[in-house]
């Protein structure tokens, strides 16, 4: 046998194998497509599946007609895909990329079919199909990744809003949100759109705190004078030189690993200067932080030594009166705020554990002595400090885990409240819980009592707790400056309220929402919708389903039709999965929004992902071994897992098998609605975006996907594609007078500068770990700096780190 004959024989074998592969794929599409049609879905998969079986069979028999048929299938697929989603590049990926790969294989194998006739024509036919696809792809790429500019961005000085804060930001960054108003705005302009490409790393500081699991430091440093103050993942305190990054002092409150709740996070610390005290006195200026084990710790800002006059040797416990909660159940992850000398703190109560978990009581402590000044237990308004001997604060009440906002002038602290323990079931909640949950509460620090509250969700069973810090502005309304508060929400709505009264300054409308679920009598017939602005997108349809190929996209379409979904606020169900969109990660989460008061622009990054959830009956949850962290059965299983070198909660996403003990159902959340095999999300990109909003009108100025695909891909394999896909993001932004937005947050491990007028990225740098933290801006010795914590995040699946990185323009003469 000649070498040519052997080559042809080998080629024929490959064609037969290709035919078998195409036929098998067709069989899968036929089976799934039949199921999809029965559920009321698209007929495409069944039709194409049957045709592919025929095409594959003909190819296996070395018939040229099989190749012609596949070329026709591909052309039809492109036409169908364009009909479904138009020139949406990411939506086209699962519809045409895998079929294109098969088409190329068919074209490359055509030489083996020549002896049966028609080979030359087949080659030209296949090349023509590929050329058409490439032309369409070129148009798609040309349209992709453009920020949609809706209206001109107001120029600086064009009638913006004012910053009402007492703590002013500029050379310093004295509060977690920049200033007490939490606008995350810097008036510095040394770094601007013209020179930002010259940014380079000025210094790097490493905390040395790298938790082995549940990492996610989320830290934003403060800057006061010549010093940065920050905390690490497990609450170690550091002071570093603002110009060099060299450590000045450190203090370790020694938080044990078993106290880590869902994430080892310390978002920030609080700075306080004691009034009317000689600055040379010990603790005349102090740093106060909340710890993962429920303490407030105060140290001297100059030396890091504990403030002996604050509580017991510089610390007080917030857990007094809570009945000795189990480790990890009560944690402070956000910076406390100080109003009129009172340190106000909430705390995280570990989600999903049990209905009667620790109380969500809000407490205020004297910033000098640590003495408890007030306690607000919504169920016990008669308790103003500690509960009577032998009693506790009311278990299971809504908590505030995120960052509050201080209004020194009004004597108010604005509390974005969470939900009652057992987020996804409301039947056992009491009237006060239903009144205050998922509300912004304005607490008077002189009385410890609410002055007003505004609720964003009635009887919340979607884990839509308010995660974003509220932002204060003085808004010009009818020629008068009105003290206002901007309240972002996880469901995407932005509310503008008069911060004196809580009355909306832009209309809020009650609209009817879906009913039913496991507690039909508990569901509110209406919910409040902000008419100012929403980040929420339109309800999902079958066409929004995604994947890496037609097969997993078909699986997602089947799941879509099998699930309960009536749109926004679909009630929880137990007999089948239900779709929650947006999911519990936002909309807007703990990073909050930024405001450019000169331009009058709100900058909001947001998530755009559904969750695929099911309430799990108690007996089934028990069989699955879903028990609270303090349950002896959980503790025993944890010990067994540790002996095997593992951890029960190490890789568990929030809500994925949470027991919710004390109510009839546990909860199983597929966060982001992932396909189990590939790890990709069922909804098509983008999964995150960034938007500029006119503060006066609520109009969208521009909107863009946020986050590249470089660290995302099927099976957890990074694609390294620099294309803007729009990724999940955690953390917020900072804006400057230089016309720039600085932000990390996305899962691509980049920090970037974005032009506030166009939404275009004008500079970026690769971080050594995930940047799930808010950046901050300051000036030292005439030089402007940008600082970001690169600590990574286990939930966002970004690499862990302990890096605090400062950027600046090159020094003159350098």
From TrEMBL:
Annotated segments matching region Disordered: 506-526
SUPFAM superfamilies per the UniProt record, alphabetical: Quinoprotein alcohol dehydrogenase-like
InterPro entries per UniProt: PQQ_b-propeller_rpt, PQQ_mDH, PQQ_rpt_dom, Quinoprotein_ADH-like_sf
UniProt keyword DNA repair, yes or no: no
Key word Ion transport present: no
Keywords of the record: Membrane, Oxidoreductase, Transmembrane, Transmembrane helix
Transmembrane parts of this sequence: 12-37, 43-62, 67-83, 89-110, 122-142
Ranges for domain Pyrrolo-quinoline quinone repeat: 173-785
Domain of life: Bacteria
One Gene Ontology MF term: oxidoreductase activity
Pfam families for the chain: PQQ (PF01011)
CDD domains listed in its UniProt record: PQQ_mGDH
Cofactor section: pyrroloquinoline quinone
Residues making up the signal peptide according to the UniProt record: none
Its EC number(s): 1.1.-.-
Family: Belongs to the bacterial PQQ dehydrogenase family.
Classification via NCBIfam families: PQQ_membr_DH
Protein name: Membrane-bound PQQ-dependent dehydrogenase, glucose/quinate/shikimate family
Protein species of origin: Brevundimonas olei
């Amino acid at each position: 046998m000649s070498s040519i004959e052997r080559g042809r024989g080998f080629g024929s074998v490959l064609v037969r194998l290709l035919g078998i592969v195409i036929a098998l794929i067709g069989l899968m599409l036929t089976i799934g497509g039949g199921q999809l049609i029965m559920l009321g879905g698209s007929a495409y998969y069944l039709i194409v599946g049957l045709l592919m079986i025929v095409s594959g069979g003909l190819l296996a028999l070395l018939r040229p007609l099989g190749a012609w048929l596949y070329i026709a299938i591909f052309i039809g697929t492109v036409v169908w895909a364009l009909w479904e989603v138009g020139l949406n590049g990411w939506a086209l990926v699962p519809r045409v990329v895998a079929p294109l790969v098969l088409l190329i294989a068919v074209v490359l194998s055509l030489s083996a079919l020549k002896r049966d006739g028609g080979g030359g024509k087949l080659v030209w036919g296949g090349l023509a199909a590929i050329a058409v696809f490439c032309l369409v792809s070129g148009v798609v790429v040309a349209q992709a990744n453009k920020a949609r500019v809706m209206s001109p961005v107001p120029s600086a000085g064009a009638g913006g809003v004012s910053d009402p804060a007492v703590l002013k930001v500029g050379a310093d960054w004295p509060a977690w949100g920049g200033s007490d108003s939490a606008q995350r705005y810097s008036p510095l302009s040394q770094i601007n759109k013209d020179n930002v490409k010259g940014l380079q790393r000025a210094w790097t500081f490493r905390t040395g705190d790298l938790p082995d699991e549940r990492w996610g430091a989320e830290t934003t440093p403060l800057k006061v004078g010549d010093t940065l103050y920050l905390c690490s993942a497990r609450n170690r305190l550091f002071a570093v030189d603002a110009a060099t990054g060299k450590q000045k002092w450190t203090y370790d409150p020694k938080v044990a690993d078993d106290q880590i709740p869902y994430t080892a996070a310390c978002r920030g610390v609080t700075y306080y200067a004691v009034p009317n005290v000689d600055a040379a006195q010990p603790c005349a200026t102090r740093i106060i932080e909340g710890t993962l084990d429920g303490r407030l710790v105060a140290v001297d800002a100059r030396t890091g030594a504990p403030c002996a006059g604050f509580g017991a040797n510089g610390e007080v416990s917030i857990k007094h009166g809570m009945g000795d909660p189990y480790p990890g159940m009560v944690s402070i992850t956000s910076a406390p705020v100080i109003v009129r000398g009172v340190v106000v703190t909430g705390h995280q109560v570990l989600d999903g554990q049990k209905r009667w978990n620790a109380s969500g009581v809000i407490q205020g402590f004297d910033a000098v002595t640590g003495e408890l000044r007030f306690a607000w237990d919504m169920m016990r308004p008669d308790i103003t400090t500690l509960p009577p001997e032998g009693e506790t604060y009311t278990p299971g009440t809504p908590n505030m885990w995120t960052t509050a906002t201080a209004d020194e002038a009004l004597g108010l602290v604005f509390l974005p409240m969470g939900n009652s323990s057992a987020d996804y079931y409301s039947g056992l909640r009491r009237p006060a819980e239903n009144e205050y949950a998922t509300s912004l509460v304005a607490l008077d620090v002189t009385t410890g009592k609410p002055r007003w509250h505004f609720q964003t969700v009635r009887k919340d069973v979607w884990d839509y707790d308010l995660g974003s810090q509220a932002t204060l502005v003085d808004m010009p309304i009818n020629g008068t400056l009105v003290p206002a508060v901007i309240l972002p929400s996880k469901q995407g709505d932005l509310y503008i309220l008069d911060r004196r009264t809580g009355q909306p300054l832009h209309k809020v409308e009650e609209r009817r929402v879906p009913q039913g679920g496991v507690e039909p009598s508990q569901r509110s017939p209406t919910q409040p919708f902000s008419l100012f602005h929403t980040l929420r997108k339109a309800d999902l349809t079958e066409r929004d389903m995604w994947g890496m190929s037609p097969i997993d996209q078909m699986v997602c379409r089947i799941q879509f039709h099998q699930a309960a979904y009536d749109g926004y606020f679909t009630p929880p169900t137990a007999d089948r999965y239900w779709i929650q969109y947006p999911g519990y990660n936002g909309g807007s989460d703990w990073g909050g929004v930024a405001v450019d008061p000169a331009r009058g622009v709100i900058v909001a990054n947001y998530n755009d992902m559904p969750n695929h959830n099911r309430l799990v009956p108690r007996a089934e949850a028990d069989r699955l071994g879903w028990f609270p962290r303090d349950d002896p059965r959980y503790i025993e299983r944890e010990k067994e897992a540790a002996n095997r070198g593992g951890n029960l909660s190490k890789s568990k996403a929030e809500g994925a098998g949470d027991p919710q003990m004390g109510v009839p159902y546990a909860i199983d959340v597929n966060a982001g609605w992932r396909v189990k095999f590939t790890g990709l999300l069922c909804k098509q990109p983008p999964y995150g975006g960034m938007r500029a909003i006119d503060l006066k009108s609520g109009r969208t100025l521009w909107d863009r996907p946020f986050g590249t695909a470089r660290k995302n891909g099927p099976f957890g394999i990074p694609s390294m594609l620099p294309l803007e896909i729009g990724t999940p993001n955690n953390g917020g932004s900072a804006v400057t007078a230089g016309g720039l937005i600085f932000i990390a947050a996305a899962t691509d491990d980049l920090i970037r500068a974005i032009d506030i007028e166009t939404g275009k990225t004008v500079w970026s740098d690769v971080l050594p770990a995930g940047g799930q933290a808010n950046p901050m801006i300051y000036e030292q010795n005439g030089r402007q700096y940008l600082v970001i914590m690169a600590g990574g995040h286990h939930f966002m699946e970004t690499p862990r780190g302990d890096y605090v990185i400062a950027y600046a323009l090159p020094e003159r003469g350098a």
